[in-house]
Model the fold of this input.
Amino acid sequence: MQFAPGYRRFALPAFVGAAVAAVVFPPLGAVLLAVGAFVLWFFRDPERSPPDEPGVVAPADGRVSVIRVEDGRVRVGVFMNVTDVHVNRAPVSGAVRTVTHRPGAHRPAFSKDSDRNERVDIELGTDGGDHEVSLIAGAFARRIHSYVAPGDELVRGQKLGHIDFGSRADVLLPPEYGSGDVVVEKGESVRAGETVLARR
Done:
């Protein structure tokens, strides 16, 4: 099993603490061991294979929490629960135009207030228009890690970042897409890099 970068920063202290506590106070050692195991599980990074069918794929595991039109473009958002994989993937193949970090609040990612949360916006240029992926922090997420930089060429389903213990990933579709091009519904479970969200 692969793990997202940074897992050692959380898992190692828990496992070291568990080893020490096992001698001094075994119940605490058991708790710390469980914490370390949870961190490894949370940072898991399983392989994914994009589908053969065309379309914009989900940037994250989770449930569709947002489908709306804003300024003439359709936004589809995926809320990542604590049980979901938190590695994010490119919804389409294309060139990274910009990567922009925007500081902000840390409201629950499923709430409307989360639109003002800290985020990283990644703009992808494609033959079919520009797509924007937004990695949005939540109430407990404090670190958004982008793996890409302007100029990078990505293929659909390629890993582009992860959020420590958080929260939501959105795709803002090009103006050519309408609400009728979205093929998922709110509340539907999706898998990063595999589930098609929209097609034209």
Summary: The first strand starts at residue 56 and ends at 57. The chain has a mean pLDDT of 89. DSSP finds two helices and 13 strands in the chain. The radius of gyration is 18 Å.
